[in-house]
Amino acid sequence: MIQPALFEEIEEAIVFDVETTGLDPVSDRIASICMIKANIRQVAKGETIQADVFHTLINPEMALPKPAFRIHGLGDDVLSACENFSEQAGEIAKFAGDLPLIAHNIEFDLGFLTQAFIRTDIAGPIFNLPFCTMDEMAEMVGGQYAETGRISLKKCCGIMGIDFDRSTKHDARSDAMATLQLAAAISKLRMQGY
Hints:
hydrolase, DnaQ, single chain, Nucleotidyltransferase, domain 5, exonuclease activity, exonuclease
């Protein structure tokens, strides 16, 4: 993925995470999304910030496979009562705007978000500045991670000294919050020349 700007140059951004019905953005659907609009540099400097948070459950309009339920605990009983993505797409697009997007494993999250907008008749935002905390950490840590490019959010948070308890199920909100802290820690190190 081409990075049009340096990670440490990011100021205000949308940090986000999705929970899904599976691993394929074409055949599976988003079940939950959390987006946090925050100034990454201010977080990196330890300043108190006022972050805007958008978090919602989404009716995927399909039966939730058992493996997905085991990962995030969202079931058909809860999700079937929620609005579908098309009904929430306008609000999601408006919140994201044209800010850079940051996610841990951006290809996964952005793939689902892009496909979700393709399925609607609502124009989605232009995702022109995607940044990936997983890619940044793999580059910084090196070794096996640099070769595979795969390093979990929990592992990254542990390396950076960020308190992230993954004893519970995956949750878009807690994952997005952890990704925000990780992005700030990476930005701080990059600003220091690392």
